[in-house]
Amino acid sequence: MPVGGSGGLRGSVRGSGGSFSMHSLLQSYSSALRRPRTLGRSLSSYLNHTTHLGTFTRMHTDDEGALTNNGSPLLLLPSQDINKRLSLPADIRLPDGYLEKFSLNSPLFDKPLSRRLRRVSLSEIGFGKLETYVKLDKLGEGTYATVYKGRSKLTDNLVALKEIRLEHEEGAPCTAIREVSLLKDLKHANIVTLHDIIHTQKSLTLVFEYLDKDLKQYLDDCGNCIHMHNVKLFLFQLLRGLNYCHRRKVLHRDLKPQNLLINDRGELKLADFGLARAKSIPTKTYSNEVVTLWYRPPDILLGSTDYSTPIDMWGVGCIFYEMSTGRPLFPGSTVEEELHFIFKLLGTPTEETWPGITSNEEFISYNYPRYRADCLHNHTPRLDNDGVELLSKLLQFEGKKRIAAEEAMRHPYFHCLGERILTLPDSEFTYTHTHLLPLRRFMMVPDNRFMRTHTHTPHTDR
């Protein structure tokens, strides 16, 4: 909700010198905006200098998203708390004069803020406008989209601008529609944040938070040898973000290192939800032409369209192996070759190991040799026994036998991180919480040459 718009603000801010209304706070802030530049001083920075603030009346949103007041006091610990309650970035920089043009005594301030008025106010601040963002560098180009590194004039932070070209007759690609519809409801520390959407006649631009690189680039920069402690942190963050999606019946369907973004603090986030789907009811109509070949599970390779969240867990296993060894697990160039690599390592399936497989027409047509399963320990020397066991539970032929993301997070492989890591709020990262666990448990161990560069080429639409 915008700060200055058309109402909904109630309550008071109290300090050691007495109390004053929220209206007075905004009026004080608006009077401080006197710079002749397009963007004003951020509200959070203003509050940082307002040292006499002590408590803030608790506000909450009703069903329409309007702010109301229940009168209970709340300690104003971080100044960003106000912006958070107003549904704005903590570092927002409101345009000069934005608050001044509204009468703080207007009756509109005593009304709930409607969705229409909120949209109008956000537009006046600068959301949804191409001129709000400055393009800096071109980072990558795909079939449907071009990705640029940019900067937001609203926050002065770096952003990633995914510019999707619109065809006159075809409109926006379905991948873009899926990505927007899903990401607007997925708010988690391990999922990339969609900040803004800009629609023009020629393009649809998605504004994402900027991260330094993807996991594939991270592997390249450290010579394909990630410290095993970092492997554990990355894997846990991947499972954490995926568990959030799966709890909401969202299937990513395209997990691979290029779609896992990492910043210079080692925070990993799931990205590129163009192939994702929300699985609300059981169905057998899903496509089996999903997931990049190297990370596609065997049941999908053999034509299955009846799948659910376990489709993502096979990819987690492949990524886990790749982080641990520095090389892809099943680098096939065709479906037949991909299955050949899988069976050569895990053994050619039989009725005992995969009931019903001998009646699968595609499996029969390939006529694979009868391979015996190899020991995973022989291929993952850097993994301990717990790590190999977890990998084995991820790489199961049948989806129903694969370990779920939530169960995997509780696997003994992660016990060294402590129990309370499982109870962190969705909006917070794992290793930054030194008040919960010793810092060494969450700290990234420097990998060779990772800090050498900070260029980022995010994966674009296929």
From TrEMBL:
<comment type="similarity">
    <text>Belongs to the protein kinase superfamily. CMGC Ser/Thr protein kinase family. CDC2/CDKX subfamily.</text>
</comment>
<feature type="domain" description="Protein kinase">
    <location>
        <begin position="133"/>
        <end position="414"/>
    </location>
</feature>
<feature type="binding site">
    <location>
        <position position="162"/>
    </location>
    <ligand>
        <name>ATP</name>
    </ligand>
</feature>
<dbReference type="InterPro" id="IPR000719">
    <property type="entry name" value="Prot_kinase_dom"/>
</dbReference>
<dbReference type="Pfam" id="PF00069">
    <property type="entry name" value="Pkinase"/>
</dbReference>
<protein>
    <recommendedName>
        <fullName>cyclin-dependent kinase</fullName>
        <ecNumber>2.7.11.22</ecNumber>
    </recommendedName>
</protein>
<dbReference type="GO" id="GO:0006887">
    <property type="term" value="P:exocytosis"/>
</dbReference>
<dbReference type="InterPro" id="IPR017441">
    <property type="entry name" value="Protein_kinase_ATP_BS"/>
</dbReference>
<dbReference type="GO" id="GO:0005634">
    <property type="term" value="C:nucleus"/>
</dbReference>
<keyword id="KW-0597">Phosphoprotein</keyword>
<keyword id="KW-0067">ATP-binding</keyword>
<dbReference type="InterPro" id="IPR008271">
    <property type="entry name" value="Ser/Thr_kinase_AS"/>
</dbReference>
<dbReference type="InterPro" id="IPR011009">
    <property type="entry name" value="Kinase-like_dom_sf"/>
</dbReference>
<keyword id="KW-0547">Nucleotide-binding</keyword>
<dbReference type="GO" id="GO:0005524">
    <property type="term" value="F:ATP binding"/>
</dbReference>
<keyword id="KW-0808">Transferase</keyword>
<dbReference type="GO" id="GO:0004693">
    <property type="term" value="F:cyclin-dependent protein serine/threonine kinase activity"/>
</dbReference>
<keyword id="KW-0723">Serine/threonine-protein kinase</keyword>
<dbReference type="InterPro" id="IPR050108">
    <property type="entry name" value="CDK"/>
</dbReference>
<dbReference type="GO" id="GO:0031175">
    <property type="term" value="P:neuron projection development"/>
</dbReference>
<dbReference type="GO" id="GO:0008021">
    <property type="term" value="C:synaptic vesicle"/>
</dbReference>
<keyword id="KW-0418">Kinase</keyword>
